[in-house]
Amino acid sequence: PALALAPVKTNRIAELRRQRAEIDAELAMLDAHHATATPKQQIRALYDAFNARDGPAVAALLADDVVYEDLLLGESTICRGKAAFSGALEWHPAFVSKKLNLPFDLQLIVDKVACDGEKSVGVEWHVEVDGKPFPLSRGLSLATTNSEGKLERVVDIAEAPWRVVGLLIRPLLTAFGAGAAALGIGGLGYLIGT
Predict the structure, then answer these.
(1) Which residues contact 143 (CB under 8 A, 6 or more apart)?
(2) CA 106/CA 128 separation, integer angstroms
(3) Mapping DSSP to helix (H, G, I), strand (E, B) and coil, where does residue 131 land?
(4) Cα(60)–Cα(66) distance, rounded to whole angstroms?
(5) Pairwise CA distance, residues 64 & 169, whole Å
(6) Considering only CA atoms, which of 58, 79, 59 is closest in space to residue 67?
(7) Which residue of 14, 64, 76, 153 has the smallest Cβ count within 10 Å?
């Protein structure tokens, strides 16, 4: 009788080991999914890696098929894939200044982050040079993550450099506006009266 139980016991042990392997695999998958960083964590990590000029750390946050686009600069800035994104990053002024050992520190500072908690994150940011805000350097970014928590799309829009023209002519417009108001011309009052 003891010999008859040996094959049954061996089969049961094998079955339990198979079940344990399946359970361990499922737990590992669930742990990995649960441990996936939120979009908010990923975007903050992206800016931290950028500010550290750590290209490999930036690349580690990206999906292999990531798409990056700068809306202000147009199609010439669309990068498709991790290699293209990493290559373009190496030519960013902040990375070039580090390679050339230039005596200034350019940082992208995250001002606000809005996140749906699942896949999308919006960021309001500005540029600082040597700890001081740089003029006309605010921007917005939208990023989405894939099921693995990697950044799969990043879209940037920065303040337009031609806003300088508006800043330069603003005193003239203000002076003209005040003069026109004094003469009773311009604005809605003028349009309604005509």
Answers:
(1) 39, 42, 43, 46, 120, 121, 122, 123, 151, 153, 154, 155
(2) 6
(3) coil
(4) 11
(5) 46
(6) 79
(7) 76
Two structure tokens written together for 186: 């311009």
pLDDT in tens, 91-109: 888 899 889 999 889 999 9
Instruction: Show Cβ contacts of residue 77 under 8 Å, excluding neighbours closer than 6 positions.
Output: 68, 69, 70, 88
Structure tokens at 55: 């290209």
User: Strand, helix or coil at 170?
Assistant: helix
Closest CA to 51 of 129, 103, 120: 129
- The string of pLDDT tens digits covering residues 133-168 is 998 899 999 999 998 889 999 999 998 776 666 666
Helix, strand and coil content of the chain, in percent to the nearest 5, comes to: 50, 25, 20
